[in-house]
Amino acid sequence: MIEKAKTVNFVGAGPGAPDLITVRGSELLKTADLVVYAGSLVNPEILEICRDDCIIMDSAFMSLEEQVSAMAVSAETGSSVVRLHTGDPSLYGAVAEQKRLLEERGIEVRFVPGVSSLQATAAALGIQYTVPGETQTLICTRKGGRTPVPERESLDKLADHGSTIVLFLTAGQVKEATDELIKGGLDPKTPAACVYRASWDDEIIVRSDLSGLAEAMRERGIDHQALIVVGKCLDPGEASSLLYDSGFSHRFREGSL
Ligand code: SAH
Q1: Contacts of range 152-160, beta carbons closer than 8 Å, 24 or more positions apart
Q2: Which has the higher per-residue pLDDT, 255 or 95?
Q3: Whose CA is nearest to atom 13 of ligand 1?
């Protein structure tokens, strides 16, 4: 008899709206025996599709070892285990260490991607992060805090690229972050925005410029669960991609000009 692989599925829950989880993620949740989820960020409404007898644990109250042990014991008995992460598991999630410890116990780890708050924020703002002729680079980063960021990635250094910048985990330090970007050479009038709880029912959008963003966010009481976007992408003017330009040839279309 072939032994069934003992597996834990790491699933991206999406940014909050319950219909922004993938079909694959949703199917895994429906059949799960155990779900460990990040209670501080994942919308609990998403868990309504779980079976009534599914065991649901909030990782906020558990150490890494407790989480891994609960998932491993369950997977070892053949149960279907989901580790539900906010947005996409690949961004600012503590998945690498969970994967390592589970694999050390002989458990296979699989990933199901999710819609990140990065994409939900662009959707809320109605923008694209890459702007033809302006920037083709998106920097996702955060301000160093209790968890450090390498010195070479300090915001004043990253400002020098003039690229679109998206700041995770920084809403509580927005003044320090915007000051640092200005110190790094960005014009204080550079467009800036913040989206609080992108895709949730109580989503809030704040638009400002770099020098005014901290105050604008303070007025709305936003200091967590928000992404900050900085750059011309928020006010791109007439820029348009060559992709659909009538004079531009590519693999599928011969230019007509
Ligand atoms: N893996 C997640 C990010 C986890 S880090 C993702 O892909 O989205 C947690 C940070 O993500 C928060 O501090 C906040 O900056 C951002 N975040 C998560 N959900 C958000 C949402 N719905 N709207 C805005 N920002 C969000």
Answers
A1: 154/180, 155/180, 155/181, 155/184, 156/180, 156/181, 156/183, 156/184, 156/185, 157/184, 158/184, 159/183, 159/184, 159/185, 159/186, 160/184, 160/185
A2: 95
A3: 169
Helix (H) or strand (E) holding 12: strand 7-12
Residue 2: is its pLDDT beyond 90?
no
Which pLDDT score is estimated for 238?
72
Asked if 31 contacts 24 with a C-beta cutoff of 8 angstroms, the reply is no
Q: Any residues with Cβ below 6 Å from ligand 1, and which?
A: 15-16, 41, 85-88, 91-93, 116-117, 120-121, 168-169, 195, 197-200, 225-227
Let me know: does 184 contact 158? Beta carbons within 8 Å.
yes
Is the distance from CB of 13 to CB of 35 less than 8 angstroms? no
pLDDT band at 41 (very low <50, low <70, confident <90, very high): confident
- Residue 244's identity, in one-letter code, is Y
- d(CA 105, CA 72) in angstroms, rounded, equals 7
Q: How many Å lie between the centroid of ligand 1 and the Cα of residue 56?
A: 21
Residues 132, 53: Cα–Cα separation, whole Å: 51
In the three-class reduction of DSSP (H, G, I as helix; E, B as strand; rest coil), residue 89 is classed as coil
Which 3 state secondary structure label does DSSP give 178?
A: helix
Does residue 255 have a pLDDT over 70? no
How many angstroms does the Cα of residue 196 sit away from the middle of ligand 1? 9
